[in-house]
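TICKET: design request
STATUS: open
ATTACHED STRUCTURE:
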């Protein structure tokens, strides 16, 4: 059904020659990460090396995956590209919009009603353009991808930060914004700064209470939430080969918590077993023919310090189970030290809820090991003292673990099975009483535990651990319980101890599913209509942005001179606004409302130069737009840092801002602005920022001769009749100037078809 064998064959056919060329170009043995990256270069075979952490390189990913929240704008944009079909295999997964409240069936039904228009749009647009569509209830994007699409040596981008989960099967899988997904689906290359490489050597073997999750909890403690930034984390060694493919997926998934670009394991017997177990033996057969290319070179792993930028070694035989938190995933506590930390810090030791599953930890292995503890609880007459929920990662896993009796065991212990969806992991949790904002503790087998993430309550102390530890602590109802050493008193007043968990990596009877929830796209999508209600508040078809008028831009009103930090969140706030992420007009009402106005140091209060009154930024800009007057936004250092959210570039463009002039840009945002046909400019002399006055009318001149590397001129016409002429720089190349001229990158793509 779901994978594309011909595509994988074509990818593998390039590996031998491209990797050989890369080895010559780099002049040394290669890591696995380098092999896959060099095998996916847009330029073909490399003839010179790329500098890690410096070179920007174009790649051709094999696949795109999108979740339902971010897919909306990605696909609305894709519709503008004028293509009949996506250029690479792509899928949409409906997982983020289902709220957990009562249990799987009731919650799913409610979500289907509430989000009908979004699902109808995503289903119809997928059907039309050749995109695989996974319905609500089919599962969480990363689990479904691992089961169906991930393949060793592949390269994928996904519009979700935990896309690296597929690294567990040896794929370079990277989280991106919707604009990048749109480009790749339209057949354009995808640019990435060539990453630095962190090697993690795993020795020894896991045993007893320790699981793969503890490896990444330990790594997060070592590297912290920023330690992986700009780097790919590559795991290797005997210990790595001993981990199940899904355990590897867990580790790669949570690499996002240390800021890593992605994480990866090499192809081995466990990967082969998982491919065969998920009915992809033909991919395993193909991978076996190029096995040597699907791991790093032996010399690299023998002397890792010579080839990685940083090396960490972890002995799995000595690794303890960990609990990380609260409020951050890098506060790592071995279980032997956790109880003392709870007491010393005054964290609520009573455990209210234990939640297992999610995209991070819902494999057959995870569920079967957790169920072995739940069974013990029942057998030993222990009742779970905390509430307990189970979120399966996919319908295939859910169906199989139900068939094998595990869900029944959880229910016997008082557990509630939630829909196969993100639910509490993304704050889609109607948690009873959360609005009272009481101090309390929960523990999950998820990946993120920032304040408010699960239930919106800033006083919920959220901890992350393996499903086994979550289950044991939920049985005890107490965070200070250490199942390795402590006993519990059962309903009959006897002291009992939990034995070590046990489980199976793969089901002995194989996976099974009745309805996986997959909708294949139409063979010929030309007659399929995309369903968008013109009256919808949540969705709006995009109109192409206007092409450049061919003249200099004169008399632009200063909309705002932003002072200090101005991240994508200040430019396009999240929270309640996310509801409108598929409706550009509605979401534009959050444009720059978080930016601080340098003239009054207030947010969302700027002078309307036409009326002289102060007003909210979006309202003032809409006033200029109504009068056909362009405007300009001025900013400080690192403008647009934060996420790759394309709305932060689309909103100003949509509302008629013509240029963003700043001291410096965050690079992704700068590129996003260029893609939307905006002028992204920097002060040649940063102190010229101080020359900008509140009533300025601003001209941008020299556009008829807009060329790479040649500065433009900006004239500041002050209200007292004086002027300043300043030089501004830009980083547009020929192609990007083409985007500006055409009005957007998508307009240009359309022209080229
Ligand atoms: Fe969903 Fe949470 Fe994973 S939001 S994709 S289950 S990190």
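STATUS: resolved
RESOLUTION: sequence designed for all positions
ATTACHED SEQUENCE:
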């Amino acid at each position: 059904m779901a994978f594309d064998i011909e595509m994988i064959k074509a990818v593998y056919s390039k590996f031998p020659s491209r990797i050989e060329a890369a080895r010559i170009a780099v002049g040394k043995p290669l890591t696995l990460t380098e092999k896959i990256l060099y095998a996916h270069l847009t330029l073909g075979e490399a003839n010179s090396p790329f500098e890690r952490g410096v070179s920007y390189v174009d790649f051709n990913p094999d696949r795109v995956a999108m979740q339902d929240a971010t897919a909306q704008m990605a696909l609305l944009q894709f519709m503008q590209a004028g293509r009949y079909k996506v250029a690479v295999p792509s899928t949409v997964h409906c997982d983020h919009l289902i709220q957990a409240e009562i249990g799987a069936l009731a919650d799913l039904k409610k979500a289907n009603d509430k989000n009908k228009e979004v699902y109808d749009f995503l289903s119809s647009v997928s059907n039309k353009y050749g995109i695989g569509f996974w319905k609500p209830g089919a599962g969480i994007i990363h689990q479904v991808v691992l089961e169906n699409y991930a393949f060793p040596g592949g390269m994928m981008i996904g519009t979700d930060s935990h896309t690296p989960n597929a690294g567990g099967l040896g794929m370079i899988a990277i989280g991106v914004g919707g604009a990048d997904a749109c480009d790749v689906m339209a057949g354009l290359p995808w640019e990435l700064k060539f990453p630095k490489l962190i090697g993690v050597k795993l020795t020894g073997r896991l045993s007893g209470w320790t699981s793969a999750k503890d490896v990444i909890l330990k790594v997060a403690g070592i590297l912290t939430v920023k330690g992986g930034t700009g780097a790919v984390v590559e795991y290797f060694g005997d210990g790595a080969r001993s981990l199940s493919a899904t355990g590897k997926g867990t580790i790669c998934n949570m690499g996002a918590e240390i800021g890593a670009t992605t994480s990866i394991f090499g192809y081995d017997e466990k990967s082969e077993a998982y491919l065969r177990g998920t009915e992809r033996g033909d991919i395993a057969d193909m991978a076996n023919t190029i096995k040597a290319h699907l791991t790093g070179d032996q010399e690299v792993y023998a002397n890792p310090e010579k080839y990685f930028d940083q090396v960490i070694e972890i002995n799995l035989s000595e690794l303890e189970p960990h609990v990380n938190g609260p409020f951050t995933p890098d506060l790592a506590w071995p279980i032997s030290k956790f109880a003392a930390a709870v007491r010393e810090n005054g964290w609520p030791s009573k455990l209210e809820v234990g939640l297992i599953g999610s995209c991070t930890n819902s494999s057959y292995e995870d569920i079967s090991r957790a169920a072995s503890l739940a069974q013990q609880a029942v057998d030993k007459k222990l009742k779970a003292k905390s509430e307990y929920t189970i979120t399966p990662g996919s319908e295939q896993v859910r169906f199989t673990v139900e068939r094998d009796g595990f869900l029944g065991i959880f229910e016997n212990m008082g557990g509630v099975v939630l829909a196969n969806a993100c639910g509490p992991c993304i704050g889609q949790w109607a948690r009873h009483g959360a609005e009272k904002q009481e101090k309390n503790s929960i523990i999950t087998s998820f990946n993120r535990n920032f304040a408010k993430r699960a239930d919106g309550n800033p006083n919920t102390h959220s901890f992350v651990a393996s499903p086994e530890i979550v289950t044991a602590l939920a049985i005890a109802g107490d965070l200070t319980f250490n199942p390795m050493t402590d006993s519990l008193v059962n309903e009959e007043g006897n002291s009992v101890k939990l034995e070590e968990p046990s489980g199976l990596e793969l089901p002995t009877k194989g996976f099974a599913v009745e309805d996986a929830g997959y909708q294949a796209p139409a063979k010929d999508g030309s007659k399929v209509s995309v369903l968008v209600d013109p009256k919808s508040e949540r969705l709006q078809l995009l109109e192409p942005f206007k092409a450049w008028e061919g003249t200099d831009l004169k008399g632009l009103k200063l909309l705002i001179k932003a002072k200090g930090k101005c991240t994508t969140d200040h430019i396009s706030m999240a929270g309640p606004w996310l509801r409108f992420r598929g409706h550009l007009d509605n979401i534009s009402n959050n444009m720059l409302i978080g930016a601080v106005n340098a003239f009054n140091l207030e947010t969302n209060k700027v002078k309307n130069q036409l009326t002289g009154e102060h007003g909210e930024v979006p309202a003032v800009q809409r006033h200029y737009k109504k009068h056909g007057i362009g405007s300009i936004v001025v900013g400080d250092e690192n403008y647009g840092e934060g996420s790759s959210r394309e709305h932060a570039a689309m909103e100003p463009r949509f509302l008629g801002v013509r240029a963003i002039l700043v001291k410096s840009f965050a690079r992704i945002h700068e590129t996003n602005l260029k893609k939307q046909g905006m002028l992204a400019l920097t002060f040649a002399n940063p102190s010229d920022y101080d020359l900008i006055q509140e009533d300025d009318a601003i001209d941008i001149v020299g556009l008829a001769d807009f060329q790479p590397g040649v500065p433009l001129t900006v004239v500041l016409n002050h209200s007292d009749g004086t002027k300043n002429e300043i030089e501004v720089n830009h980083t547009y190349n020929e192609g990007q100037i083409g985007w500006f001229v055409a009005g957007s990158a998508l307009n240009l793509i359309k022209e080229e078809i």
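CLOSING REMARK: The mean pLDDT is 96. The domain at 553-752 is CATH 3.20.19.10 (Aconitase; domain 4).
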